[in-house]
User: Fold this.
Amino acid sequence: MLDKSVQFVKGIGPRRAELLRSEAGIETIDDLLYYVPRRYLDRSSFKPIGECAAGDTVTVSGTIARVGIAGRKRRFLEVVIDDGTGKLSGIFFGGIHYLEKAFSTGGVIIFSGKVDYYRTRQMVHPDFDFIDEDSRISSIHAGRIVPLYRSTEKLKSAGFDSRGFRRTIRAVIDEHIEGVGEPLPGELVEKYSLPSLRDALLSIHFPESFEAAERSRRRLAFNELFFLQFYLAINRRRLREDVKKRGGLIDEGAIGRFSAGLPFTPTGDQVRAMDEIRENMNDPFPMNRMLQGDVGSGKTVVAMAAAVMAASRGEQVAVMAPTETLSSQHYHTFTSILGETAPIELLTGSLSKSRKEEIYKRIRDGAAQIVIGTHALIQRDVTFRDLGLIIIDEQHRFGVNQRARLREKGQLPDLLVMTATPIPRSLSLTLYGDLDITVIREKPANRLPVKTYIFPESRLSGVYNSVRKYVAQKRQVYFVLPLIEESEKVDLKSAKAAFESLKNTFPEYSVELLHGRMSQEDKDDVMGRFKNGEVDILVSTTVIEVGVDVPNATVMVVEHAERFGLSQLHQLRGRVGRGAEQSFCALVHPDDIPDEARERLTTLASTDDGFAIAEEDLKLRGAGEITGTRQHGYTDLEFSDLGKDLDLIVAARQEAWSMVDAMENVMEQTSDMEQALLRLPVLEGIRSKRILSILS
Assistant:
């Protein structure tokens, strides 16, 4: 019954059902039950009318003393109630003739809202509900913890504002809640002191207290996390059972020659990461590993070592990066260090058609052994002879489908995904539960922490004086701004405006502009001259956030720093401090900014630990803000709060993976993940369609 269309719910019908589907994704009765409130209002405490003052937001109850339409220029309905301590008028401007029939003198009613005072106490458009004095108070709109629901203008016009949703969901609960089954084993519910799913759904909509609402949310979050982890565990088991037969072993001599040829000594973390990757690549099943490393920790060297391992046994390697700038940098780094170890090609969208065709042929023939590029690598024309390893840099900038399309170009190739954005543990366990994770925390020995300072705009001239001092010492400087051009809607300085201003401020030095709308050729030209020391000051947008490595650039000034997230600011700051000299980052903000923005900047200035910054960013902004909309799974979780549910995540992961380990025959029965899971008794009643959509 729960999978029945909402059009059969009393009062909805086909037209309103289609509106619910298109505007809110609600198709079934089950969807309505899981359409949880966005927040709650506390209207559980009643206040005597005589004690209410203007500006108070309160809940009152009383007997209807008078109902009437008033007003000359603008008509309104006035409903006067009396509780014995005073009188209060409810004022309604819309639907007054309909509402006039709803209120009867002598009836008992609850009003909730903000008190105004105009000749007498009044509330404009209060939430209201009626009380039957012969029974207990059963209000769903007032006199209790009241749920508020997400809505749109189209839904509101059709009667689905918060009041309409409350009424509809209450009716659905009364009729269908008994049909909700318990998808978790009883021992799990008892072990973690969880309310039943039935009680959780009832209480998430109409809680007796905020504590009850939180207990219900955590139960629904446990469900969501448990089944997400269950799918990840099944997926990992399936991948490991599709054994990949390798053509040869890694040539340990090639690894030794690579290490010996490095112009520096790898850190302990880099060596450990290389060892873990070598063990994975020697396994009989494909490697599925994430390499996390803070800015400047040396992930690229580890990636090169992995490429040498694959190339040493005759396999091809694909290295995919999100931008041509980063791809070009990887190409130059790989060629300068690997030299003649393996033939390396760069494939990007800006290459000429004839050059692309030449590279396509070399990839098909296997003559190109390491291919570095952008999304161009996943185009249909790219065919590998023997793709054995995929390396994806800044993996969070690629969707799941893009990663899958590249993996399909080989026979179950090893996969190494890399990110310079430290990921909080709760996010790692949630979305990357099927990946082995290597973390590089050590920085190269010659790197000094970047000193970070915060300045109001009123002290910008002092910042300019410091910049002039360092440029005179032959150091280079970044100026970063959030916009390319000024906007009438947003009062922010743009990169173009800053560029013109800085040219006048520093006429004796070379100032250049870099932003995302420039052609790749122009971007390469500016960056090339900046790397070569021909440009003293580079004014840029966040296009330099990733992949720009200029050791001589030791100063960064971020204007309107309050407009950036913590993790993004940390990534930007990572563009300096890449050489042996002391580097500095100046965060400039308007003199008056919100406390939350000030706290963010203070956090960044107090630490250079990207993992600590990521955890704080998660608390301040939430997972969706940090990871962006391309992080399928993060923003689709309905009930889990990844900033405070680490205990649930750990417990759900442990229980789900233990259950999969105990079900040895599941994947032997079918290779289709969805069908396998739907056969399991534990999944009866769970919204597996929802979880599958998160993973897809």
In short: The domain at 45-143 is CATH 2.40.50.140 (OB fold (Dihydrolipoamide Acetyltransferase, E2P)).
